[in-house]
Amino acid sequence: MTHKTGVVVLFGGRSSEHSISCATAGGVLAAIDRERYDVYPVGIAHDGSYVLEVDDPSRYALDPEHLPEVDASRPKVRWPERVGSPHLTVVDADGTESVIGPIDIVFPILHGRFGEDGTVQGMLELVDLPYVGSGVLASSLGMDKHYTKTVLEAAGIAVAPWVRFTAHEWASSPETVLDSLGSLGLPAFVKPARAGSSVGVSKVSTPEAFAEAIAVALAEDTTVLVETGLVGREVECAVLESLPGSPPRVSVAGEVVVTGRDFYDFAAKYLDAPGIELVCPADLTDAELSEMQDLARRSFEALGAAGLSRVDFFLTDDGFVVNEVNTMPGFTPISMFPSCWLASGLSYPELITELIEVARARA
């Protein structure tokens, strides 16, 4: 009998985006090709423990009244303790041990810190398990908005003006910090430097509102980034790594149309709050789309990304400005990344297969 490829779908995690990761896992578990892959759902509970989760996509539906979570009481999972041992150990509550595998690839659909930031990627490299997505450096860079902007600016790619400061700087000299923000103008956006899904993000329209917005951001991270609020259309492209020897592919563009909210916040992204419309493909001229795709590809390559990314832009009167590069973008079936690829001719199940096979070829 032909050996199927063993795939660990790794999800959950310790970040504030735990439930979004679980929802993404539900989409992947429902769509992955079971004829081709043996699938092992491994969840990371809030306490950081690894467990063998239930292989039931419906369990991870994103219900605003009951957000999905990894069940920490499930059998524990131990990763290999040495290189060259592609099996995971499962430990039941009574101490009974069994093994699952062999594991050929790990699909770490983790969002936020302790998963999307290079930490899990480093662990997988230590035990020599190939994985989908960017490596340690690109994941770390992409997670930190300040360093993403620094790298892109050095590559000649336009980014919004910004100021970065730490919790210590804010606590010891808030007046100095506030003075430094004057050059950004208003409105401005206050963000945790290392968080996603718009968690901890505030739009500030008056100087008096900065203190509260900074407190909200500091609840998520010890470093804060404040950037100029740009006026323009919010458009996004999905980038997909190709097989070795070929350049990255870039999808058609999608657009986030904000009609009744201050910005595209967490509730609008995931809890079906009103005031947002996702349009794909976006209404762009051929020249605009070509330029945007080129900038998305250049951004992907500047960070040294792999596997997949979603590059977010503002299309302003002065042209395209990159807002963020997401190295593990939202990946539920209705998220912008798969929607852009669907509009480009690649279905959700095909996209999952493509990501796994490209990662295996790279490994």
Describe the structure concisely.
The protein has 363 residues and is α+β, with helices and mostly antiparallel strands. It is built from eleven helices and 16 strands.
**How do the strands line up in the largest sheet?**
14-13-12-15-16
Number of strand segments: 16
CATH superfamily of the largest domain: ATP-grasp fold, B domain
CATH topology of the largest domain: D-amino Acid Aminotransferase, Chain A, domain 1
Q: Give the distance, in angstroms, between the N- and C-terminal Cα atoms.
A: 24 Å
Mean pLDDT: 93
Q: Assign the CATH architecture of the largest domain.
A: 2-Layer Sandwich
Radius of gyration: 20 Å
Number of domains: 3
The count of helical stretches stands at 11
Main sheet properties = 5 strands, antiparallel
Shape: globular
Computed structural class: alpha+beta
Q: Order of helices and strands, N to C?
A: EHEEEEEEHHHEHHEEHEEEHEHEEHH
- CATH class of the largest domain equals Alpha Beta
- Classify the helix fraction into a percent range: 25-40%
How would you describe this protein?
By secondary structure, the chain is an alpha+beta fold. It has 3 domains: 5-131, Rossmann fold (3-Layer(aba) Sandwich), CATH 3.40.50; 141-159 and 231-362, ATP-grasp fold, B domain (D-amino Acid Aminotransferase, Chain A, domain 1, 2-Layer Sandwich), CATH 3.30.470.20; 162-228, Dna Ligase, domain 1. It has 11 helices and 16 strands. It has helices spanning 18-31, 119-126, 136-143, 145-154, 167-172, 174-180, 210-218, 266-270, 286-302, 336-343, 348-362; strands at 5-12, 37-44, 50-52, 76-78, 88-91, 97-100, 105-108, 162-166, 188-192, 202-204, 223-228, 233-240, 249-258, 276-279, 308-316, 319-326. The strands form 4 sheets. A 5-stranded antiparallel beta sheet has the order 14-13-12-15-16. Strands 3-2-1-7 form a 4-stranded mixed beta sheet, with helices on both faces. Strand 2 and strand 3 form a beta hairpin.
